[in-house]
Amino acid sequence: MIQQHSETDTLQKVIIGRYENYNESPAYAELVNEEQKTGLPPREQLKEEFENFRNVLTEAGVEVLVPDYVGKFVYDQLTPRDIGVVIGEKFLLCNMVKRSRRYESAGIFRYLHHIPDSEPNIIIPDSPTCFIEGGDILIDKGNIFVAVSQRTNQEGVEFLKEQFGDVFNIVPIKARALAEGENVLHLDCMFNPVGEKAALIYEEGFEAVPREITDVYELIKVDKAQQQELATNILSLSQDKVISRDHPLCKPINDMIRKTGVEVVEIKFDAAPATGGSFRCCTLPLLRGQY
Ligand SMILES: NC(=[NH2+])NCCC[C@H](N)C(=O)O
């Protein structure tokens, strides 16, 4: 069973990043974003932080799955968020921009075998030039927010409209480009709902903030330094609980989240963010809410 209708519905089943075999053969490493240019984290640190993260999820009653090892040519399996996304009761398998990520989805195929298919419920983009990554997609309150970013293109937005436009309101968002001095890799690096009515936002990352955001959410603003530490990239466990980094730049944001009545579990998580992804990136929710 898979299901996701809202970003903050209670998380029941999730795939988390695989740290085992990370960068096993550096010959295949590809520096895919700005963060990675300053060096890749050691596997020991990834192990410690991912095991702790996994324990927190398990203790919260979440079923945790880990991708299979694809092979040394996929050097990084830390951020499954981007390789697919559950939209309603369907699974969208993404076309990745970066070569080293293109076969990463093979690691999760065994978790897709049991998706019921009275109709084709696993959706694959038709065209190889249609790029969509899960980090650019966010489903909440009847909307699918989708960023046109470093990793998702207009063709991807059109594909979402075709496939899901009858059930969801598709809200395209243009992320500012690297050339404009903004490093927002994915939508979840600049926007993320939290609790029932609030959302974290890094406004400077947007070309324009859509009405579906300004009219609906109480906005908690993240500044540039906090954005660079991926302060928006929390993971919602439910409407009343999130997981966030204990990083000094994230702590003021965590306090603002607490003021909205949401519990924040802070954990040490520095290694994965050094590769460009924090808690949201390092997770792919398969089931949220009551089925
Ligand atoms: N949803 C996200 N923000 N994902 C971050 C992905 C980081 C990953 N190393 C990449 O560059 O592709």
UniProtKB/TrEMBL annotation:
GO terms for molecular function: arginine deiminase activity. Keywords: Hydrolase. It is an enzyme of class 3 (hydrolase). Its EC number is 3.5.3.6. The lineage of its organism: Bacteria, Pseudomonadati, Bacteroidota, Cytophagia, Cytophagales. Coiled coil: none annotated. It comes from Pontibacter ummariensis. GO terms for biological process: L-arginine deiminase pathway. Gene3D superfamilies: L-arginine/glycine Amidinotransferase, Chain A. It catalyses: L-arginine + H2O = L-citrulline + NH4(+). Pathway: Amino-acid degradation; L-arginine degradation via ADI pathway; carbamoyl phosphate from L-arginine: step 1/2. This is arginine deiminase.
